[in-house]
Amino acid sequence: MGTCSYCGTRFPKTRKTRKYCTNRCKTNACLDKKPRLRAADVEAIQEILHSDFPSVDAMRERLRAIVAPDLPPIPLVDGRITIPRLD
To answer: In this structure, what are the phi and psi dihedrals at residue 43, rounded to the nearest 5 degrees?
Structure first.
């Protein structure tokens, strides 16, 4: 017996089903790992590639806002990225 890596149910292991209990769980696990960008995000990225920015850090922050809007903004001091110290 094995445990499905996606849904957690127990299932009899075979050569075909080593990690997932069904093909649906295998497909869902693959889709969960690779999130897709929306068409509007792809267009915004293409627009960024064709525009001018004052610094690479500004362009990086704009890309971060498109690709990962849920993450906090990158801290900038005087237009440069600052890495917080851990002491």
So the answer is: -65, -40
